[in-house]
Design goal:
alpha/beta, 14 helices, globular, 27% helix, eight-stranded antiparallel sheet, 30 strands, homodimer
């Protein structure tokens, strides 16, 4: 019997044949472990695996985990579910990378115990007890302190001369089970063949509300061009709306060659400001600020003030140049020249973007290009920036992003990267896998109930949720969807509520959004008329039709309801009206449940019956429950799964209910939790 | 421009950053390439992958494949489907192992051509043509023979002084496209990060009809115990039934200690023969034959005669011993002893199997045990056996099977292993993945329409079909399902047709099956009364109720209809009666389509309307089509998707239709193919 505990001689060509446990299909596992799953600090990593062995022996299994770079594993036990599936979990406590894997072993004591409890023949029981005695004895040798003595004593008693019934009871006792579980024989354990990575971000990676605005449009009074200074004065307004990330389009010097004019004109007037994405002029490039906005010093002041208000600046990273960018002189080898000697501007024939020159990532000098772009990120991190919204990452090589994000996050693991890739599914997913913290989504174009339901179900339930964190934007400076163009103020309210409650991260481009800016440049176009991309705008923040109040309320609801601060609990519920959508989010313990119902029709009152899964929501079908509308303050008492709703888009196109269960008797004053 | 074609300097810590193509999600891929997909000689391996790059450049991609061990890859082109999914395929021509992987590259010529076809500005076109000239020139350097000269000439013309329209036409010509496709610039290509294995078996691995019988029950006239000689006389009968594999339970000496008697009795009479699975006695062990069956020489004669009749012997491999097996003396270290010194017999408390002693695969001497068991397989291969039906593989370590099957198939790649693991899904799948050629299934217990539909859909459409080849058995010596116990002759007919037409491989345990042996040992048991496992039986093959005629006909239908010779085309079709099941199988070109309808109710006539997907079956909805019942010979003319059927289980519980499409006009005599 002792033999099985011995060391393993290496076979001549044979595998280590006595390790009998099998571990398969570990989840989460992204592309066979090539990429990391994502979590934020304090979250659980729930690890599942198929674990089994030959015959009918019993198994033990653990999840092994550690912060990357540490040598020692921490272990947490796994428990069997059904059908050979096991589950364990561990909590990630610090920002950075973790690793995890699974170990399992055939547990002779558990097998012995299982068999013993079923034995009928007293002769067999007597012999089995001797086996148990041996197992306890061996465990005693592995045990520490008092446990060792106790196990040795139990071993002696099992093999001793007490009556069979006593020894059987002892062998099957919970006490022995507990001791043996503490000191299993793992000499023949199996390790899963991969060590899997998880990237742990700070909480804002999962839960964030973004507000994009153009600093140059914040001029007050007689000024023409806004500055970091005037932008700083805008911050309390944005903080008041309840956002936590303030995202600025590029703040660098803007090229003059082929500069675009208002409404994308190719013949701009002398004093038109140009697109901020045409980066670089004689005043500098990606590490410089546009002189009209102010100085680096003033930018830092803006950043400090933002942090004081609970806001954080996100900078736009657009790795492209205007024809006037200093790089074109200092590093001409980073750009492609055409056979006629002219520089290759950006294009997607027949479209031309002559104010933009892309880097040639196939240049022989690609290594110095990569390092320079890395230094751009490092530069802004040095200025206090920890969030980057990356412009069109899908037009630069995937390998570059994986490398540069890896480099930056190794040194600054708190950095957050938002991928602005409005591209094909595989492309967006690859960017998320290789390291982008959050991703823009197709939400901007998903407006019907069917579209929203299927897309958000995909985002929140498919395996891709392990790495793809959605950030929902109803509008951007590039996209004014026709639903917003034609739906009036109710359409904006509807989309705001959807974005803010369907996903834990969302953003708006303001003040265009809250001021219901819905004029397109031409019919059929998603471009804004008089887009801020090409001209300065002045916004009347005090306009009576502003949605500021609603936005502030929705953001407060998000902060007060943890159910809205993560994505995976999202469930859609049936409503018998295609214009009404209903869904819920909840915390794991069901302590906080939010039920949202939105009228997708911005023109007409819509009504219908909502069907809630009472069981899943922890509700007693025999008891009424309260729905507290956190938007209007109204409270409704519902009974059973099926209840009637009606929503007038001109008053409020949505209910955002906190579900309050009956927790005491009706004699209590406040009897809903 | 030349730069991009240069060699790649290794970066200091940087990845090879200019390889821009991405390859993901290659299929087939079993457990990240840990296990092989399975094919038989002559089949295609259809390889799919997600392939894309940054930006809007065009790509080229190939499947690379080779017999394992060869250095050179063969390549076949991949074509894009939708959504960045690409597909290519290759045919496997010889038995053994193949490898495959995927390569992809950004194709500058294809990108150039795509852009050029969309350019509008003549100035841009003129410059682009110079780029095209360069690309052609570089391709000329890669090209061979006349192609090189032609490409060089085209290059010169593109940069020459012919009118722009002429040069544009040349640049976009199919001729240039064909040439450039032949000589792409692959200097910056990406290779998928895994090389994936495929095991190629002979055709019988995919398409086989098995007949199991006990040689000892073939005695004629005055003999008591059948012999290899009497079994040999049974072979023409089995060949006449149309089977191709004859599977024999163990043929080794049978232990005497704790021998089981008739009906599993623990107190057998002196002359009872015992279970063939209690292997080993003083006459020998796993490499010896039971003296009462005859000699090894006579076994070889049996095997030769089988091959002459188009049959092949499958031997039972049961790696376990009777207490009398010579191994217990020669290698006592391979068995576990209990603390009282007694040998550990097989058990699953409270059940005991005292006539069986399992090997202790955790023995220190496991390596010599593995090698000895390997030598058992080699011994029988030496006797002409190429098919093994492995008894209870799930009670021996997975690592052992992976090793031993790998060893044997490296030397004898024609060997087929059938896994008799009636166990949990993960366990059965692991055995299939690690190398078993075919697997027993849950079919034996799947009797209702819902059960059959969902289970066979899983077997034939899920990813597991890449490695799990089902073999359907309506009965075995261990399992007489209650459906057969109570359904009479129609139940046997029904299950025969289902097994033989749902899967390309099936088997029966005869003559019990064709003689409708349906007496269970006791109510609620699946064991046969007077089971051949424990006693000799005599069977009257000429009994009038024998299903021999039906079986012979069904096996002939299988041989004549290639649709029934593989599994992946299986599709179930709607019938508005839960007792009627309808499905079809077809060849890839739809040249052979078989539609099967079975009445699952063995007692009553059942009728209903069958709904066929005319489109999928290549049928013209406006034309009638003929269903030729290959069982009865009757022909039916059907119109449209919905048609009526009625089946009387006492006459024939099934239609096995060959679908014949109209291929000419009604003036032709035989106008259905």
């Amino acid at each position: 019997m002792n033999a099985a505990h011995g060391s393993l001689p290496a076979g001549d060509g044979l595998p280590d044949g006595r390790r009998r446990a099998v571990i398969e299909s570990v989840r989460p596992e992204v592309d066979c472990g090539r990429f990391a799953a994502k979590r934020v600090v304090g979250e659980w990593v729930v690890v599942e695996a198929d674990i089994f062995t030959d015959g009918h022996d019993r198994l033990g299994a653990v999840v092994r985990h550690r912060p990357a770079g540490e040598a020692a594993w921490t272990e947490t036990p796994m428990e069997p579910l059904v059908n050979d599936r096991w589950r364990g979990r561990f909590r990630v406590e610090t920002i950075g990378r973790y690793e995890y894997t699974v170990a399992a072993w055939v547990d002779r004591f558990l097998s012995f115990r299982h068999d013993l409890s079923r034995r009928e023949d007293p002769g067999d029981i007597a012999i089995a007890l001797l086996v148990g005695a041996e197992l306890a004895e061996h465990a005693a040798a592995r045990a520490r302190g008092d446990d060792a003595a106790e196990l040795a004593a139990i071993g002696r008693r099992l093999a001793g001369d007490e009556p069979l019934e006593c020894r059987l009871e002892l062998a099957l006792s919970e006490r022995l089970l507990a001791l043996m579980r503490q000191y299993p024989d793992r000499s023949l354990e199996t390790h899963y063949d991969k060590v899997l990575p998880v990237v742990v971000d700070r909480e804002r990676a999962r839960f964030s509300a973004w507000y994009e605005f153009f600093p140059r449009s914040t001029a007050e009074g007689g000024e023409r061009h806004g500055t970091f200074e005037s932008a700083r004065k805008r911050l309390p307004y944005i903080a008041g709306l309840g956002f936590d990330v303030v995202y600025l389009p590029p703040i660098h010097p803007i090229g003059r060659t082929k500069r675009k004019g208002a409404n994308n004109s190719l013949e701009p007037g002398e004093d038109e400001p140009g697109s901020p994405w045409a980066i670089g002029a004689e005043e500098g490039g990606h590490k410089d600020v546009h002189p009209e906005l102010g100085t680096l010093e003033e930018f830092r002041k803006l950043s400090v003030e933002a942090r004081r208000l609970g806001l954080e600046i996100a900078l736009d990273i657009a790795f492209q140049c205007s024809p006037d960018h200093p790089y074109l002189e200092s590093h001409p080898q980073w750009f492609r020249r055409r056979p006629d000697g002219s520089i290759q501007h950006a294009e997607n024939p027949p479209k031309k973007y002559e104010d933009i020159v892309p880097f040639d990532f196939e240049t022989d000098d690609w290594q110095s290009l990569w390092r320079e772009l890395e230094s751009v990120l490092e530069f802004w991190i040095g200025q206090g920036v920890a969030i980057f919204r990356v412009d069109n990452p899908h037009t630069k090589p995937f390998a570059f992003w994986e490398w540069v994000i890896g480099q930056v996050k190794r040194r600054h693991p708190e950095t957050i990267f938002l991928s602005e890739a409005f591209s094909r599914p595989r492309v967006m997913h690859r960017l998320a896998k290789l390291g982008f913290t959050q991703s823009y989504t197709y939400f901007t174009w998903r407006n019907t109930k069917h579209e929203l339901t299927s897309y958000l179900t995909e985002l929140t339930t498919h395996d891709s949720r392990e790495y793809f964190r959605p950030n929902l934007w109803p509008n951007t400076p590039d996209i004014l969807h026709e639903y917003l163009q034609h739906g009036g103020r109710p359409a904006f309210m509807c989309r705001l509520v959807l974005a803010a409650t369907l996903a834990a991260s969302y953003g708006i481009y303001g003040p265009a959004f809250e001021l219901v800016e819905n004029r397109a440049r031409e019919p059929g176009s998603e471009e804004y008329l008089d887009s801020e991309k090409y001209q300065l705008r002045r916004w009347n923040l005090d306009a009576p039709h502003s949605l500021a109040g609603l936005i502030a309320r929705v953001n407060r609801i998000r902060r007060e309801n943890p159910a809205l601060q993560s994505d995976w609990s999202l469930r859609f519920h049936s409503v018998d009206n295609e214009q009404l959508i209903c869904y819920s989010k909840s915390t794991e313990d069901l302590g906080n449940i939010v039920v949202v119902i939105v009228n997708l029709d911005p023109h007409h009152v819509q009504s219908g019956h909502v069907e809630l899964p009472l069981d899943e929501l922890g509700l007693d079908a025999a008891q009424p429950y309260q729905l507290h509308d956190l938007l209007s303050g109204a409270r409704y008492l519902w009974h059973g799964p099926r209840n009637y709703v009606a929503l007038d888009p001109h008053r409020s196109p949505a209910h955002v209910f906190r579900l309050r269960r009956r927790v005491a008797t009706e004699r209590d004053f406040d009897y809903y939790m």
